[in-house]
Amino acid sequence: MDPFFAWIENSWLSDWIRGSESLLAFPGIITLHALGLGILAGGSAAIDFRVLGVAPGVSLKAMARFLPVLWTAFVVNAISGTLLLIAYPTKALTNWLFYVKLGLVALAVGLIYRIGVTVLRVPQADEKPVAAPAKLLALASLAAWLAVILAGRFLAYTHKWEMLGVPAIL
Amino acid sequence: MDQIAPWEVWIRATALHAFVQQQEPWLWPLMQSLHYVGGSLLLGTVGLFDLRLLGMAKGVSPAAMHKLIRFGIAGWCLNLMLGIVFFFGHPDQYFYNNSFRLKMLFMTVAGLNILAFYGTDAFVQMKKLPAGAAATTRMKVIAAISLSMWVAILMCGRLITFFRPPFFH
Question: Is A43 on the interface with B (CB under 8 A)?
């Protein structure tokens, strides 16, 4: 095994997250991670739907006030994600899908940040109809979150498939 | 549990059960992903609406924002269907599972709370609430229950796997 991965895996923190019987260890951390993404992806989707024209009576500027909720969820997930990585470094860092997910998260977070800055928090946000490029950003955001969810869920399975061989299990 | 209950024997004889078991390697993670999408839609639309009633982003008109709830309802319907397929695939893993049971209990509370919102004049009052105005105490209580129930439901769903029964049928 990679000495760096081994060093992480032998730390007390990694050992506690993996081995503890406590619900606050691995189960609690992964549950927080799931809740965080639910808020982040779902909240982004709600903003995206508004940008795409659903609920036009909602002020875009006022909608921006929900963004801190999303950033809080992102911080929770950065921390919980790091803890999960400390628990199983080899499993994640030797899986190509992990890097795909990380890239998709960066893309999805970047898109909703951009929507916040260029669509919601602009002086005349509510005075003219939403322009086509902004709607394109919203569509891209929805697609990116869908991809993040798929990558995140399949991450738990591809490791198993790599161990057993995909054809053998399919 | 050595004796399999009659309802479980019936489920295990269905074509749906056989299909899920056969296609499980790819079908299960795909269904889980879609179930997660449904839950996110629900939490994102209903959750933010609840936060508005609780006083966040007061500049948002609650009546206008309520139009987003349809995506939450669509997510819930998707999840009900997927949930039935999950249950048919592995009935014992869900039925004999305290996290699943707690999830169903919270779902019942959320359902009664929905009745308290739409079945009373709380909904009519909400629609009259202009942007910038604070919700009534009753609306806030309903919103707080809704938000905490959906959060708890998502968490219980994620925890199901850690509360699997110690037997396999």
Answer: yes
Q: Which residues contact B143 (CB under 8 A, 6 or more apart)?
A: B49, B50, B51, B53, B54, B135
Contacts of B44 in chain A (CB under 8 A): 38-39, 41-46
| Yes or no, beta carbons of A42 and B39 under 8 Å apart | yes
Task: Report whether pLDDT(B81) > 70.
Answer: yes
Instruction: Report yes or no: A121 and A140 within 8 Å, Cβ to Cβ.
Output: no
How high is the ipTM of this complex?
0.95
- Give the CA radius of gyration of chain B: 19
Asked if A143 has any chain B CB less than 8 Å from its own CB, the reply is no
Radius of gyration (C-alpha) of chain A in whole angstroms: 19
Contact A23 B162 (CB under 8 A): yes
CB A40 within 8 A of CB A110: no
Q: What is the DSSP letter of B96?
A: T
Q: Nearest Cβ partner of A65 from B28, B47, B56?
A: B56
Q: Which residue of A has its CA nearest to B154?
A: A35
Above 60 in pLDDT, residue A168?
A: no
CB atoms under 10 Å from CB of B121, counted, come to 9
Cβ atoms within 10 A of the Cβ of B158, count? 22
Q: Which helix or strand (DSSP H or E) is residue B51 part of?
A: helix B15-53
pTM above 0.90, yes or no: yes
For residues A24-42, average pLDDT: 98
* Cα A143 from Cα A118, distance rounded (Å): 19
**How far is B109 from B112, CA to CA, in rounded Å?**
5
CB A158 within 8 A of CB A95: yes
What's the one-letter identity of residue B35? H
User: pLDDT, tens digit, for every residue of B91-130?
Assistant: 999 999 999 999 999 999 999 999 999 999 999 999 999 9
